[in-house]
Amino acid sequence: MKTPTLTLGSTKISTPQNAFGALPVQRADTETAIKIIRKAYTGGMTFYDTARAYSDSEEKLGQAFKGMRDKIFIASKTNARAPEQFWADLDTSLKNLQTDYIDIYQFHWPPVCYKPGDGTGMYECMLEAKKQGKIRHIGITSHVLSTARESIESGLYETLQYPFCYLSSDEEIELVKACAKADVGFIAMKALAGGLITDSAAAFAYIAQYDNVLPIWGIQSECELDEFLSFMNNPPKLTDKHKALIKNDRRVLLGEFCRGCGYCMPCPKDIRINMCARMSLLIRRAPSAGFLTPESQEMMEKIKDCTKCGLCKTKCPYDLDPPELLVKNYEDYEKILAGEIQVS
C-alpha cells in the first residue's frame, strides 16, 4: 500500500499526502541541502513549501530542481505588507527558485485577511501576479483561528496553511472540515508541533485520517528524510498503540505550551524565546544531551536579561505569556542541571 494521493482543493494540484517543508534546509550547507531535496523527489515527494523569509531555502530548491521544474510543485510566501515589497519579494523568489512561476504564492501570516478593495492593494497584487502568469494559485498562512476562518469564508483563497497535528483543538479540526466543504486546500504546518511530537508514525497516521490535509514535514537531515520516505510505500496505520500515545501526549501537552513558531521574536534582549520558553518540554521528550550543552546553558542564561517588556506577549498568536513561560522553564532547567529532576 502506498501513501495516498490528494488533490489540494480547487488548485487541482495532485500530490502524495507526504510533502517537504523546506524551512529547515536553510540550516544545512548547500551541498547537503541539494542532496536531501533531490532524494526527497526520487523518493516520491512532489510538493515543496518554502518562503522568502527562509533565508537561502528558495535558492537551494532552485539549484536542486534546475531543469526539472515541471516535475514538482513549489509553494512560497511573502510577508510583504505593501505592494512594492510584494513585487520585490516575488521577483526575488522567482530568481532564487530559477523559475518563471510559483504554483502557490501565499501571504505569510498577514496581519489581516487581505481582500480586494480593502485599501492595502495586497490582494490586487496577487490577482495581477496571477494574470501575468507569475503565480498559479493564491494562498494564505496563519496561526490565528479568526483569520483562518475569514480566509475560508471569503472565497478568495485557494489554500490555507495552518498548524495541524494530533494536538490540535476541536476548533482547528473544524477548520479542516470547513476547508474540505469550501474546496480550499489545507496545508498542515507544525505537524510535529515544533518538535514536541517525537513519534513520526503516529503523527503521520493521525493526519492521514483527513484526506484533504497535506502535511509539510520540516526536514533538514537525510535521516529525517528517510523516516518520512519510508512511509511512501508503507504508510503507518493508526493503531491502538498510537491512539494511546496520542491520548497521553494530549494529556501532557495540551494547554499553555510554546509551539515554537517564533512570531514573538526578535526579543530586544536577544533571548531565543521560541526555544527557551519550551525547553522543559523539549528536554523531556528527546535525548537530553543536546539541550544540556554549554551553548544551551548560555542560551538559557539569557532569560535573566528579560525585562518583562511584554512585546513578545503582544505578538504571540496563541495568547500565551512568554515572560512567565521563560521564568518557569529557567527554573526547571536549573533543577535539571542540578540533578534534582532526572531526564533521559
Would you mind describing this structure in some detail?
The protein has 344 residues and is an alpha/beta fold. It folds into 2 domains: 5-242, NADP-dependent oxidoreductase domain (TIM Barrel, Alpha-Beta Barrel), CATH 3.20.20; 273-337, no CATH class. Helix content is 41%, strand content 14%. The protein contains 14 helices and 10 strands. The protein has an 8-stranded parallel β-barrel, surrounded by 5 helices. It has a two-stranded antiparallel ribbon with strand order 1-2. The radius of gyration is 20 Å and the shape is globular. The two termini are 36 Å apart.
Summarize this structure as a short list of keywords or feature phrases.
344 residues; alpha/beta; TIM Barrel; eight-stranded parallel beta barrel; two-stranded antiparallel ribbon; 14 helices; 41% helix; 14% strand; globular
List the helices and strands and how they pair.
Blueprint: E1 5-7, E2 14-16, E3 19-21, H1 30-42, E4 47-49, H2 57-64, E5 73-78, H3 83-97, E6 102-107, H4 122-131, E7 135-141, H5 145-154, E8 159-163, H6 170-182, E9 185-189, H7 200-208, E10 213-218, H8 222-229, H9 240-253, H10 273-276, H11 279-285, H12 294-301, H13 311-315, H14 322-337
Parallel strand pairs: 3-4, 3-10, 4-5, 5-6, 6-7, 7-8, 8-9, 9-10
Antiparallel strand pairs: 1-2
Helix pairs in contact: 1-2, 1-8, 2-3, 5-6
